[in-house]
Write a structure and sequence with these properties.
- The protein has 109 residues and is mostly beta strands.
- It has one domain: Jelly Rolls (Sandwich).
- It contains no helices and 10 strands.
- The strands form 2 sheets. The chain has a 6-stranded antiparallel sheet with strand order 1-2-3-10-5-8, with no helix packed on it. A 4-stranded antiparallel sheet has the order 4-9-6-7, with no helix packed on it.
Length: 109
């Protein structure tokens, strides 16, 4: 596997609830995913075994992490430990997040 990943080679995968994602880079230890949200897009509340960091690239989002609910804007970051419930909804016409997982999400491949 190459250490270089080019955006032009990334495939956009449509998802439910007005969202889509592009796997930007990955190996067994880490995965970087761009998630795009259209109007009323939702990332359903879920849990997984991976530690996740999310960086807001564009738009505003209401995030729920465990029992906490907050709004994030471009430049803001959230870290979610393994096993904690989390989800979000876009508050603007569109938005983009950069999700970083460790280890990689094999279920995304």
């Amino acid at each position: 596997m190459s250490n270089f990943f080019y955006d032009k080679d990334c495939v956009i995968n449509p998802l439910p609830l007005n969202t889509s994602r592009k796997i930007k880079a990955h190996n067994e230890e880490i995965m970087i995913v761009e998630v795009m949200f259209e109007k009323d897009g939702v990332g359903s509340v879920h849990t997984h075994e991976h530690t996740q960091a999310t960086y807001c690239l564009e738009g505003e989002f209401e995030f729920t992490v465990g029992e906490e609910k907050k709004v994030i804007k471009p430049g803001d970051t959230i870290v979610m430990p393994s096993g904690i419930s989390h989800g979000c909804r876009v508050l603007t016409e569109r938005g983009r997040l950069l999700d970083i997982f460790t280890p990689e999400r094999k279920d995304f491949l």
